[in-house]
Specification:
Blueprint: H1 3-36, H2 38-62, H3 67-82, H4 95-124, H5 138-159, E1 161-162, E2 186-187, H6 188-207
Antiparallel strand pairs: 1-2
Length: 216
């Protein structure tokens, strides 16, 4: 068969594009919801951070999770909580924001190493092919990463807002204002999506695929 594999590759590419657009649309909608309900979003995010901290402590006490990694996870969420002091605005050069971005990657790496080493040790202790390894399932590991490692940073990324001059000029201290003198919030997700769409539109115009007066 020669054509069917090509059809499979084409279908995979089209499906990936649709999935990417669906995720971007969902994030865009969530960002708008946070802009309209800032007080509720801040309250929910604060309670979520405290809940994740409590969950990590319970996992350490009951299921024997490593104390060092648990303390690192708790400290990371305390730093995430520091981003709530000026919620929903964020300064991308803020040390707390930079530390939060770094800690997301650090937590992912060390917890991935922990579960990989635990799996290796479990298989090495097996004396027979009929023995069952004492390791967490893929669902349990994925759920832990989703809830305790990625949920709060992802929620903060969707919720935090940037002023009009944050992208592409980073480092604005005060948010911009609209014609009424009120703070003009723009979600980071919306900023990124709008900039990507603008870049695609500009490339299309330069390539001659789109007239300047056409809207993207």
């Amino acid at each position: 068969m020669w054509i069917l594999p090509l059809v499979g590759y084409l279908g995979s590419i089209v499906g990936f594009c649709f999935l990417t657009l669906a995720i971007a649309s969902g994030l865009y909608y969530l960002s708008e919801l946070v802009e309209e309900h800032t007080v509720i979003a801040k309250r929910l995010l604060t309670r979520l951070i405290y809940s994740i901290i409590g969950l990590q402590v319970i996992l350490c006490l009951v299921d024997g999770f490593p104390i060092g990694l648990t303390l690192m996870g708790v400290a990371s969420h305390v730093i995430y909580l520091g981003n709530m002091r000026r919620f929903p605005f964020v300064k991308l050069s803020d040390p707390l924001f930079i530390a939060s971005c770094v800690l997301v990657l650090v937590n992912h790496y060390f917890w991935f190493q922990h579960f990989s080493d635990a799996q290796h040790r479990s298989y090495s202790r097996m004396s027979s092919i009929y023995d069952q390894p004492d390791i967490p399932s893929f669902t349990e590991i994925a759920s832990y990463f989703g809830l305790c490692v990625w949920l709060v940073p992802f929620a903060l990324f969707v919720s935090l807002s940037a002023s009009d001059n944050v992208l592409p000029t980073i480092g604005s201290e005060q948010p911009s204002h609209d014609v009424d003198g009120k703070n003009k919030r723009q979600g980071m997700v919306k900023v990124i999506v709008d900039n990507v769409l603008s870049a695609i539109g500009e490339i299309s115009r330069l390539a001659g695929w789109k007239k300047p007066e056409d809207r993207f």
